[in-house]
């Protein structure tokens, strides 16, 4: 008999237009259903605004839907993302962090615009705010403007030349400390996952130190596959999830049809029987 989880197609990390994704929550849920996903979370950056719409559409399709959000934090000066899953919409601690991060985003955008001006570029702040509209303003909006104005060839170049963490070195320490975020959110029944752990500038030794802190401060999960993750990285993360007793989460980190590989529900295969899955306790 196959395990209960093995015939599910799970995606617990996706973005809509409410942050830096291409599609509306409704369109994204339709896409998830089209891709035969059966357990789905929307995890926009620092906002829960899209969740009600996504849940309504998921209910319409009979798709199991999990509330989610990707929170911006930092640890030892390194920006880190964590995905909170399966919280109540009226959770006050979560709402406070989201609100705080939204204020930081606006302030940070002003500072990003100023840094770009110093490098001889036009002041893009007003246009970035207008482009984001109701969505969470972020670096992808600046990247888009740099591309459409012909100032860089493509989004990658925009990050390489102007918007990457190294390039924005002067903008360190903008996000709340991981410790504070985890402490505020732990013990309230939600799942707290460290997102895409191999995307940070960390050696394995330092990653292990991070995971020790993450666990100690109340983190409960580790994203062992995030989109087009290298299989050997998935293997390493699976082992680390066992070692640190963090449940394994998975997601596409889908933002839109920006590459041939990207799709809702699509990520490097994991070894489900060798890890504790975050969704085991939900379904
Ligand atoms: P922010 O939330 O404003 O810090 O922007 C981070 C987002 O920018 C990430 O969630 C990605 O969606 C996007 N991003 C980061 N690096 C790159 C890159 N090199 N090329 C394209 N998009 C990127
Ligand atoms: Mn993003
Ligand atoms: Mn992320
Ligand atoms: Mn993401």
From TrEMBL:
Transmembrane segments: none annotated. SUPFAM superfamilies: PHP domain-like. Residues 10-75 form the Polymerase/histidinol phosphatase N-terminal domain. PANTHER family: EXONUCLEASE, POLYMERASE_HISTIDINOL PHOSPHATASE N-TERMINAL DOMAIN-CONTAINING PROTEIN. This is PHP domain-containing protein. It comes from Marinomonas vulgaris.
């Amino acid at each position: 008999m196959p395990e209960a989880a093995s015939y599910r197609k799970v995606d617990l990390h996706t973005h809509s237009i409410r942050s830096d994704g291409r599609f509306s929550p409704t369109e994204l849920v339709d896409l998830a259903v089209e891709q035969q996903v059966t357990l789905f979370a929307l995890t926009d950056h620092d906002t829960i605004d899209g969740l009600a719409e996504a849940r309504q559409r998921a209910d319409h399709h009979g798709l199991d839907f999990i509330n989610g959000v990707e929170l911006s934090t930092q640890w030892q000066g390194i920006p880190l993302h964590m995905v909170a899953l399966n919280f109540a919409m009226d959770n006050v601690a979560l709402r406070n962090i989201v609100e705080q991060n939204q204020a930081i985003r606006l302030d940070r955008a002003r500072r990003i615009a100023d840094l770009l001006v110093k490098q001889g570029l036009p002041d893009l702040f007003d246009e970035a705010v207008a482009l984001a509209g109701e969505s969470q303003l972020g670096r992808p909006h600046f990247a888009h403007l740099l591309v459409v104005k012909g100032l860089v060839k493509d989004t990658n170049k925009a990050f390489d030349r102007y918007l990457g963490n190294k390039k924005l070195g002067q903008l360190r320490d903008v996000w709340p400390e991981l410790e504070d975020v985890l402490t505020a959110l732990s013990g309230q029944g939600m799942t707290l996952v460290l997102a895409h752990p191999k995307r940070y500038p960390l050696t394995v030794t330092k990653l292990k130190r991070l995971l020790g802190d993450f666990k100690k401060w109340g983190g409960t999960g580790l994203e062992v596959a995030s989109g087009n993750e290298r299989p050997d990285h998935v293997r390493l993360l699976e082992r680390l999830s066992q070692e640190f007793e963090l449940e394994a989460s998975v997601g596409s980190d889908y933002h839109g049809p920006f590459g041939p590989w990207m799709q809702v529900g699509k990520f490097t295969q994991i070894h489900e029987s060798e890890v504790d899955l975050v969704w085991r306790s939900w379904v």
